[in-house]
Amino acid sequence: MTAATPTSAAPARRARHEAELRAHGLRVTAARLAALDAVDDHQHADADTVLRTVRGALGSVSVQAVYDVLNTLTDKGIVRRIEPAGHPARYERRVGDNHHHVVCRECGAVADVDCAVGHSPCLTPADTAGFRIDTAEVTFWGLCPDCAR
């Protein structure tokens, strides 16, 4: 799959990304557009994959700039960062719901899993310790179909 650049991406996708950035009070920059394209094209991408994709689209861009963009997009709720134990952080565009993830113990592949039961937070703890719970994050572990063969 070829990485889409901010200038060659489908005009509708670019317009959607620009509107999304502005709606969250962010300036539209080439690095932000390229990072959104990268995460759109590579769900559950780690920062190195996003960096390679952004560099492929823009040429020279610093590692710190890409991390800054990913942190900003995460802070604004435009992308979601997941951090499976023992694996690098990964980024996805599926936000606004309380889905979970399944991770392959062998190859590290990650896939989305819809909520186990009910509405957000999908799980009810026996004791909340006084916290008002709004999200439950569950990671299921196993073998993906390829590794299970």
Automatic annotation (TrEMBL):
Cofactor binding note from Swiss-Prot or TrEMBL: Binds 1 zinc ion per subunit.
Gene Ontology terms for molecular function: DNA-binding transcription factor activity; transcription cis-regulatory region binding; zinc ion binding
Gene Ontology terms: biological process: negative regulation of DNA-templated transcription; regulation of secondary metabolite biosynthetic process
Residues the record lists as binding Zn(2+): C104, C107, C144, C147
SUPFAM superfamilies (UniProt xref): Winged helix' DNA-binding domain
GO cellular component: cytoplasm
Subcellular localization(s) per the UniProt record: Cytoplasm
Keywords, comma-separated and alphabetical: Cytoplasm, DNA-binding, Iron, Metal-binding, Repressor, Transcription, Transcription regulation, Zinc
Cross-referenced InterPro entries: FUR, Fur_C, WH-like_DNA-bd_sf, WH_DNA-bd_sf
Cofactor: Zn(2+)
Assigned protein family: Belongs to the Fur family.
PANTHER family (UniProt xref): TRANSCRIPTIONAL REGULATOR FURA, ZINC UPTAKE REGULATION PROTEIN
Protein name as it appears in the record: Transcriptional repressor
Source organism (scientific name): Cellulosimicrobium arenosum
